[in-house]
Design a protein that fits this description.
493 residues, five-stranded mixed β-sheet, alpha/beta, six-stranded mixed β-sheet, Lambda Exonuclease, Chain A, 19 helices, Nucleotidyltransferase, domain 5, 3 domains
């Protein structure tokens, strides 16, 4: 069988950037390493795809024995179609050296219906483009294709005693989009093949396309010549403005003229980089610190967001808190106390979480968090689901003080923050501490997926290990928050 030139993923890559396609096909080793977060997203998509197969039970799975043997799946798919199969999972088709693999293929009344499964609540334009390519290939191989639909998550579904897949999933036909976009698909396939036929790599400069629809995974190659203090490190500046500077030859922040028309927050970043000095508005910081009442505690909450709800009354993507850390200070120079809670696996953690959180924070008139939106959202949802705790949870939200405000308002800024107002960037810049880099789990997204993974883990030692890593991460988060709070206090007061 003739080897394919393009697949779904490489086609989408070609639409984004022909240089990326060329690198992917010819210099795959230069591809940036897959992050833990992206791998977790891919795993989630696979799991949801397998679950959706139950909508059409009794099918035959023709997944290849390895990603390099999709020709096996193409052959098996045709054999099953000729043998009268009515449901095929991971059906593979190739036309004009373009390969696609379809999640579910179903035959009803001598007509074929194609279904692609997505583990998201919204159908993005990329998903539609992906489906259009699949429709183009399958229609040319399987003339009896009647419809092509995307199956995705119904975010308004609420789990009752048992999971109802027909309520969890919703189905949307994209056949009209596919037919309307056939000329575009054919044109982009031709351009992609022409690019691959060339000996020289396409000359494509870096640009906004590097980030749309996805962050390119060859940025380590194409962007490696960008200097430290690059103009792309500035926060609050649109990509178009950054590339406007770049095209004018402004590679470093120091190259940007002082009279540039930018927001005051951006001007402060530029001046900080040029002068090497920190900016501090002591009067505004002093006003902020005056709001703090002691004893004070520093709180961080970690959540999981299962695509498929696992607890009665919950919905897809609902934030379910499972871990919190609280560092407490009786005075700014006192020795901190620490409290932590992490839920057991395979049980609804919410009631115990509420009780433990209320107990841990009730004696503190000020509860400091970094970026209050998530914490308040979680607490408000808990109050909604468990109205018997509404009063205590409402009292907690009233005590929350958002420590992100001084940085978002740039009452303090230094060049080492590199335009970022994330605590994980501010902490090393102010406290010269690299604790997060040493952690096995060092982001909230990683924490979410790690906890979700151990829900199905039978190895109790593995469960204990991951729970310890999660606890260490959350504890580091509140310790870092407290240290930054104290460091800035010493600068401002």
């Amino acid at each position: 069988m003739e080897k394919h030139q393009l697949s779904k993923s490489s086609f989408i890559r070609s639409v984004q950037c022909l240089k990326s396609l060329f690198l992917y096909k010819n210099f795959y080793r230069l591809k940036d390493p897959l992050t833990k977060e992206k791998q977790a997203v891919f795993n989630r998509g696979t799991q949801v795809g397998i679950l959706a197969q139950q909508l059409f039970p009794g099918g035959t799975d023709v997944s290849p024995s390895s990603p390099f043997k999709y020709d096996e799946s193409v052959v098996k798919t045709q054999e099953l179609i000729k043998a009268g199969a009515t449901v095929i999972y991971e059906a593979a088709f190739m036309f004009d050296r373009v390969l696609v693999a379809l999640d579910i293929l179903v035959k009803k009344e001598n007509k074929w219906y194609a279904y692609e499964v997505k583990s998201s609540a919204k159908i993005s334009s990329v998903y539609v483009m992906d489906a259009c390519l699949q429709y183009y290939v399958i229609k040319n191989v399987l003339p009896g294709l009647e419809d092509f639909s995307i199956i995705n998550i119904n975010s308004s579904y609420k789990l009752a005693k048992q999971l109802d897949l027909h309520q969890l999933f919703k189905t949307v036909s994209v056949k009209q989009d596919a037919n309307r976009n056939l000329p575009f698909i054919e044109d982009r396939i031709t351009k992609a093949k022409n690019a691959l036929a060339q000996e020289l790599m396409p000359d494509v400069a870096i640009g906004e396309h590097c980030f749309s629809p996805y962050d390119c995974d060859f940025m380590g190659t194409c962007w490696k010549k960008q200097p430290n203090t690059s103009v792309f490190e500035l926060s609050g500046v649109s990509k178009s403005k950054q590339f406007e500077w770049y095209k004018k030859g402004y590679r470093k922040i120091e190259d940007i003229p002082d009279n540039s028309d930018v927001a005051e927050t951006v001007r402060k970043q530029i001046q900080a980089q040029k002068s090497g000095k920190e900016f501090i508005e002591k009067d505004k910081l002093a006003g902020f610190y005056q709001k703090i009442k002691y004893p004070v505690c520093f709180m961080d909450i970690e959540v999981m967001m299962p695509v498929v709800p696992v607890f009665e009354g919950t919905q897809p993507f609902q934030q379910i808190p499972f871990l919190f850390s609280v560092h407490c200070l009786k005075a700014i120079d006192a020795v901190p106390e620490h409290k932590l809670f992490i839920a057991e696996v395979n049980q609804d953690p919410r009631v115990e979480f509420i009780q433990q959180l209320i107990a841990a924070t009730k004696d503190y008139p000020s509860v400091v968090v970094y970026d209050e939106q998530m914490e308040k959202s979680v607490i408000n949802r808990l109050a909604q689901d468990y109205p018997e705790y509404k009063k205590e949870l409402a009292a907690l939200t009233q005590k929350i003080i958002d420590f992100a405000v001084p940085f978002q308002q740039q009452w303090y800024y230094r060049a080492e923050m590199k335009g970022s107002f994330s605590l994980k960037n501010i902490f090393p810049a102010l406290c010269k501490d690299s604790s997060f880099e040493k952690l096995a789990i060092n982001s909230g997204v990683q924490a979410m997926y790690a906890y979700l993974d151990i829900q199905q883990e039978s190895d109790l030692f593995k469960v204990a290990e991951v729970k310890e890593q999660l606890s260490e991460y959350c504890q580091t988060d509140t310790l870092a928050l407290m240290k930054v709070f104290c460091e800035l206090y010493n600068k401002a007061i």
